[in-house]
Amino acid sequence: MxxxxxxxxxxxxxxxIRWQMLFTLSMVLGCCLLAGFHGAISALLGGLVxxxxxxxxxxxxxxxxGFTASCVLRTALRAEAIKIIIIVLFLWLILAKYKEVxxxxxxGTFTVAVMINGxxxxxxxxxxxx
Length: 130
Fold this sequence. Notes:
Layout (H helix, E strand, L loop, with lengths): L10 H24 L1 H27 L6 H29 L5 H15 L13
Helix pairs in contact: 1-2, 1-4, 2-3, 2-4
């Protein structure tokens, strides 16, 4: 399992992205059965917005080399800015181009995936503990 997502060096972020992907997949499958094709696509897009922004955040954090407080803060702010830009860009693109989006499913999947992202603080960097 540690070999998955090797470009992300931060263990909690790897786990969170994996959880977001699993949640998105479960929403796609459930919505495919209950809401049809456009519901499934809406769930996929809502989850992928967060997976992509979290992956970009993780890549920036994984490239961090400094250990001073200012370097850590600069990296965190840069990573968060990139994440927000990606979220805004993808939300705008999806809502502008995909007219059949099921807003309830799309925003619901997006919102829960954002909340999953917040769980990174609960995961230990040590592989022996969660």
